[in-house]
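Researcher: Let's try something more involved. This one mixes different molecule types, so please make sure each is placed in the same coordinate frame as the others.
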Amino acid sequence: MKYKMTIEGGFVGIPKTYQGEHRMDNKEKSQLIHHLQKTSPKRNTNARDALTYHLELTDLDRVYNFEFDEFNIPKEVRMFINSIIKK
Amino acid sequence: MCQKFKCSIVPPYILEQLAKRGSSSCKKTLLETQRIALSRNLAINNLLQRIDLEGAGERFVYDCLNEYRQQVKISRSEGEAPVADKTTNYAYDYSGYVRDYFKEAFMLNSIDGKGMAIRSNVHYGKDYNNAFWDGDEITYGDGDGVQFSNFAAGIDVVAHELTHGITQFLGNLEYKGQSGALNEHFSDVFATIIKQRFYAQDITEADWLIGDTVVGRDFPGKAIRSMKAPGTANQFDSQPNHMDNYYTGASDNYGVHINSGIPNKAFYLSCMAIGIDDCSLIWFSTLRKLWRTANFQDMLGVITEVANQLMKEEKVCNTASTAIMESFSAVGIIPLTV
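Model: All components are placed in one shared frame. Result:
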């Protein structure tokens, strides 16, 4: 699955973009999409300097777009993002 | 027969009628309902009349144990001796320094003016390159050790984040566009003032940098932002120093960390003209008067009024208003002509 992730905001205020391909089997893929599509709690509008995560996933001809902040990001998605950052 | 549980949803006037016609259970329920209403009203009145006890900005530092959760484990509370974890001590000491500055300079009792407890979270996440205010508390990452280091170890970072809290309880500037850039600006202003005071620097010898102590060895620059020369702190620094280069894109909440460079530069110029002490009083008094959607023009209008008033009261030098107008004019923020 191809991904493009932009992390922006934060005290630092320097946006960072990560782009590439992440190998996953069908089960992992559907689990990730499931977690991404979970209904997220409301964004924290009082947050200042918190990061925003924009994630675009492309699976064959399907494109998924997601946006999270520091407070509504599902744990499994955080793990996926961390694995991208560590690459 | 009228059961109590059924009568409880029946309106009082019906209960009264039924009670008059001899229903003892309805009479009992009516009395019970009145008793509950009376005690509820008393409780509400007591709550309304209670004078909120003010706190004193007690500090609590929590260790997130590198999880992405806050308040995982308390690591130091107000009055306790330093602990083995240096980061905890930094968050504790620096938040106390910032709290004391605002109290001494402006008689502000903690973040909200009512002695709100100051809660800091350290060791948030893994290699986490950020620090943030979330509306209630502050959270610091350790940094990845390459680009950034421990965010709690920067007095300017701590001051910047705590000022976000103060702004929330004063002007509560909306976090997008120009009001968001002003929100960031006030955090940078007090981060700078407090940093210079902490290191006992004179304005002529200070570096006017934000975040220079938290950038790592591989970071391509000397700091995160520069008040003196916005746009020059690092390779990615896109802060403009004039309205001619105003950022109009949607990123970063429509440029809150970008366009703050414009008023930041005006602040620097004002400090060089009238000194940082007069500016700190003028800027803080301005923050008290701004409102949620205030923009750069509004800021100029309010700060000019504030400076004039403080000049009248002989609290700042008599050139303050002119110096500030000139500084704002130098960055392209000029009064609108009708």
